[in-house]
Design goal:
Helix content is 67%, strand content 0%.
Length: 206
């Protein structure tokens, strides 16, 4: 059999994709490093060359998910059609990585992974804020928003939403989360100088 030699970045990407598939299929706790090795038919030394532990591999998987989500969002933000409000609605939907990866999110909420969790939340804000800023600026040009600092406003809004609704950081009771969810549309409208009701899609009344 001919041994296939891959570039380091390709091999690392293969491991991350395999782990992502196995974590999604069998759960994080139900997947071992040996399972990933077996799935790819690689040696122990190969996987540990790139990842020192399963938690290290988890961080790479979550980062991969965030990057994939950001690429989807970039396509939306840079699309030549669609007004700013419709783009924001699409950006919000595209950025909901947690909805399809509940098991991975639960792992991040473990106290042992608190540092990783905070780093990844910060990375998401850094990646997504420029995309929202681009759409906020579009909304200003369309006369939908009155915002003088699109990027700083995007950073502020994303940080507030990400951190204040993250149950891994704040163990809110359901009624406390609901109270915040109801307030966010109006608060964001005020930040952007948007017409009342513009962001009602964030918390539909029905």
């Amino acid at each position: 059999m001919i041994r296939v030699v891959k570039k380091p970045e390709e091999r690392r990407a293969d491991i991350v994709r395999a782990a992502r598939h196995l974590f999604a299929t069998n759960g994080f706790d139900g997947t071992s490093m040996q399972d990933v090795m077996r799935h790819l038919s690689i040696a122990k030394g190969t996987i540990y060359h790139y990842f020192s532990s399963k938690e290290d591999l988890l961080e790479a998987v979550v980062d991969d998910l965030a990057t994939e989500s950001t690429e989807r969002m970039r396509d939306i933000a840079e699309a030549p059609t669609g007004d700013a409000v419709s783009k924001i609605q699409a950006l919000v939907a595209a950025g909901r990585v947690a909805d399809e990866n509940q098991d991975l999110v639960r792992q991040l909420h473990r106290s042992a992974n608190a540092g990783m969790h905070a780093r990844l939340l910060a990375a998401v804000i850094q990646q997504q804020a420029p995309l929202y800023a681009k759409v906020f600026q579009q909304g200003r040009e369309e006369g939908l928003f009155q915002v003088d600092s699109p990027l700083e406003t995007a950073e502020f809004v994303l940080a507030a939403v990400q951190f204040l609704t993250d149950e891994g950081i704040f163990p809110w009771q359901p009624e406390a989360l609901l109270r915040r969810a109801k307030a966010f549309p109006s608060l964001i409208e005020q930040q952007l100088g948007a017409r009342p009701g513009t962001f009602s899609f964030l918390f539909p009344s029905t």
